[in-house]
Design a protein that fits this description.
The protein has 315 residues and is α/β, with parallel strands linked by helices. 40% of the residues lie in helices and 20% in strands. A 5-stranded mixed β-sheet has the order 3-2-1-4-7. A 5-stranded mixed β-sheet has the order 10-9-8-11-12. A two-stranded antiparallel sheet has the order 5-6. Strand 5 and strand 6 form a beta hairpin. The structure holds zinc ion.
């Protein structure tokens, strides 16, 4: 049995898995929004212990635990630096050794998007293919590349589909540059745009729905609810996001010509197949070889895909 932890900006998802995709126990904890790396690590330990007790095992009995983390990951040392969505996490922190001490088993750290891509490739919607592009549409827009059956990391910075420039001098991105896919499609950017439009007097129920659901952020569920009720601003911003994703993914296909695209992430999974179909349609006008488009599939491992992919690290 192995453990997997998906460390996200809003939640920590921990699972215990036997083999493949059979989840024996799971736990979800909110990610601490204050404090620092040690507080986040302590919460991860609690989540893993809870997942273990649900599975009827002790953490020390696990073959190992894999962690998918945001930020810059040093796989060898087990450190994470510059995790900007996590509280006060700039300098390298020894996440792997800290968790390993607390749990009593080996812990391996990988990049969150890379482990999610690997999970879909080995166990999910990417299984039939030798080359693919994983697109994780959530707070940001992350990407992972598999070429000839192997992960392509470049010099460590490959796969940044969210920072493909689709409009020169376009919308400001969280990365400080302009015109990136993420500046239009990232949940964070869409929320910032919605807040500004709302303050400027545009009518929308997005924030009413947010409060009604006891949230402080426009979560994927809030967006989905607003779309179902045909909220004009939500509709406009999602249309814009889909166009941006279509252009960015098609450009990546024109360069790499991989066999398949897998759409995952919080928004991708929440919106499901109908939105995946819209992304396919938005890609089409930008595909150079439009007679032979790639297969585009919704991620098959769903919400737990990040944690399932992370558990693969511990094999
Ligand atoms: Zn950017």
């Amino acid at each position: 049995m192995r453990g997997g932890i998906d460390l996200g900006g809003t939640k920590i998802e921990a699972i215990v898995i036997e083999s493949g995709t059979d989840v024996l126990g799971s736990a979800r904890h909110p990610t601490p929004t204050s404090g620092g790396p040690a507080d986040v690590a302590a919460e991860m330990v609690k989540a893993m212990e809870e997942a273990c007790s649900a599975a009827g095992v002790k953490p020390s009995d696990l073959e190992g635990v894999g962690v998918g983390s945001p930020g810059s990951v040093d796989h060898e040392k087990g450190t994470v630096a510059n995790a900007l969505n996590l509280p006060n996490w700039h300098d390298p922190y020894e996440l792997g050794p800290t968790l390993s001490n607390a749990l009593g088993c080996k812990v391996l750290i990988g990049n969150d998007v890379q482990v999610a891509t690997e999970g879909e490739f080995q166990l999910g919607a990417g299984k039939p293919f030798k080359s693919l592009l994983g697109v994780f549409w959530g707070t940001g827009v992350g990407g992972g590349i598999i070429l000839d059956g192997k992960e392509w990391l470049g010099r460590g910075g490959a796969g940044e589909i969210g920072h493909m420039v689709i409009k020169r001098d376009g919308a400001l991105c969280g990365c400080g540059r302009r015109g990136c896919v993420e500046a239009y499609a990232g949940r964070g950017s869409m929320e910032a745009k919605a807040r500004k439009e709302h303050e400027d007097g545009t009518k929308t129920d997005l924030f009413k729905i947010m409060k009604h659901r006891g949230r402080t952020r426009l979560t994927s569920a809030v967006w989905a609810h607003a779309l179902e009720h045909k909220d004009p601003l939500a509709t406009e911003l999602i249309d814009r996001a889909v166009e941006a994703l279509g252009a960015g993914i098609a450009s990546a296909i024109n360069l790499l010509d991989v066999e398949a695209v897998i759409i995952g992430g919080g928004l991708g999974v929440r919106f499901g197949q109908p939105m995946t179909d819209r992304i396919i349609a938005a890609m089409h006008p930008h595909l150079f070889r439009d007679d032979r488009p790639p297969d585009v599939h919704l991620a098959a491992l769903g919400d737990l895909g990040g944690a399932i992919g992370a558990a693969l690290l511990a094999r």
